Amino acid sequence: MASLVVSGYQEANETLRMPDLRQALYDEGAILMEKVLVNLHGQEHRSRRNIETRVFRRDFFHWYEREVFPVTLRETLAPYLEQGAADLVDFGFRAMMNLTADFSGVDRPLRTPEETARLLTILRTFGKAATLGQALGDKEAIRAEIRAALDEFDMAFFRPSMSRRRRLLDEHAAGRCSEAELPRDVLTELMRHEAEHPLSHDVLMKEIGFFLLAGAFTSIHTLTHAMHEIFVWREQHPQDAARYEEDMLFLQRSIHESMRLHPSSPTAGRRPVCPVHLPGGGAAEPEDVVSVDLMSANRDTGVFGPDAAQYNPHRPAPEGASPYGLSFGMGMHACIGLNLAAGMLPRRDTDAARHQWGTVTLIARDLLRCGARPDPQRPGVVDRSTVRNNWASYPLLLGR
Ligand code: HEM
To answer: If you take atom 2 of ligand 1, which residue's CA is the nearest one?
Structure first.
């Protein structure tokens, strides 16, 4: 078995679009990930993705960003504002988990901090499935922990969420409930299409658990990196400080720039389903693993300029590439939540009053408006136990 690494931007881009390469990053996390969307291939993947994509429509984001999200965000931010301080990682977990739960279809009927904390603990344990491949320590013990978290998720959150949707779908079928009264989330869509795409209870429960994980974990770390880059730039370039709060297009561009430098997964992993030729030259066999180095591809000086490894919110839009590089993947597994998290790319004629910003920019805007700044007494701590260099904690002060 050979391990082949692809690292240039163009080669990485083309490799991710190859239909004969299947997912290989989550083999060790099979206990949660085996039959979830990101691990499927071919027709099975297409058919499930087509159903789930219905939730992620543009008109919906527009409404969601204006009507639903501000309320959730205000609710989550309020206790921290009262204290005048927050840990950005902890706040990010709460904000993003509540948001992703809305989209996934996980009800939190009590809306209490205890309920959020319970779901957060479950989610953090699910997170171990995605990184089980790199885990040191006793993997069987970690699997047992994940199994217990799955049981708790199933009984406490998934079954009640499913029962409520079953009732509503029955009412809808009987003409007693309108389309607008149905929840708009992945679970509802999968349940309404169960005749054409049947899923066992176990697979459906894991799919929804995976959605929570895919949406929340990535966005949390993205938010923390982006805020850190903003704080450092603001300190070194005081002339831009006010712009972060007044110019939303500038803020969104600076978030995309940070997304490019800090992809939530530094690599994508693929395995050929048949012998293939890779775009950069070289061949791969079904027993080989192809590792696409997203971190290097996103710092390709030929695409992003000679200072590609640096954060520069004034970077001109790259030719033939997204400003966030390959951080949301490419090809069949490209992130389904891209528009939700990153918003639309602005064009020359973009009207800021109607633009869709993405949740990371919206949260950053609210934090900056609340006077968020690093706590000088307690600097943030980077988690060095993985190659991801995510922040383990990031204490903030709030209020002017
Ligand atoms: C900053 C935030 C996010 C980042 C950086 C991110 C990144 C990614 C990447 C790199 C992939 C491709 C994985 C691969 O090629 O193997 C992916 C796939 C996926 N993402 Fe995201 N994601 C983000 C937010 C979200 C959100 C908010 C959701 C859902 C609410 C979501 C749901 C998914 C799903 C379901 C897939 C699998 C798609 C498929 O296999 O067809 N992501 N994401």
So the answer is: 219
- Which atom of ligand 1 has the smallest separation from the CA of 342? 1
The pair phi, psi for residue 268, each rounded to 5°, is -110, 145
SS3 183: coil
SS3 323: coil
Determine if the pTM surpasses 0.85: yes
> Which atom of ligand 1 approaches the CA of 40 most closely?
40
Taking residues 271-294, what's their average pLDDT?
95
CA torsion sign for 213, 123, 101, 113 is negative
Is the CB of 23 inside a 6 Å radius of any atom of ligand 1? yes
Distance from the CA of 370 to the center of ligand 1, in angstroms? 29
335 Cα–ligand 1 center, Å: 4
Residue 96 to residues 77, 139, 213, 215, 339, Cα–Cα distance (Å): 12, 28, 10, 8, 15
- Best CA proximity match to 41, nearest among 54, 24, 22: 22
17-31 mean pLDDT: 92
| pLDDT tens digits, one per residue of 58-97 | 778 888 888 888 888 888 899 999 999 999 999 999 889 8
Gap from CA of 380 to ligand 1 centroid (Å): 26
146-177, pLDDT tens digit by residue? 999 999 999 999 999 999 999 999 999 999 99
Could you tell me the CATH number of the domain that includes residue 85? 1.10.630.10
If one counts the domains in the chain, the total is 1
* Cβ(294)–Cβ(9) below 8 Å: no
Q: Is 265 in the pocket of ligand 1 (CB under 6 A)?
A: yes
Ligand 1 centre distance from Cα of residue 341 (Å) = 9
- What Å distances lie between residue 314 and 236, 250, 263, 366, CA to CA? 14, 8, 19, 22
- Atom 21 of ligand 1: nearest residue by CA position: 335
Q: pLDDT for 235-276, tens place per residue?
A: 999 999 999 999 999 999 999 999 999 999 899 999 999 999
pLDDT tens string 295-329: 999 999 999 999 999 999 999 999 999 999 999 99
pLDDT for res 309:
97
Domain that holds residue 179: 3-397
- For residue 25, the CA-to-ligand 1 centroid distance in Å is 13
Structural contact between residues 388 and 221, judged by C-beta atoms closer than 8 angstroms: yes
Structure tokens at 103: 């989209």
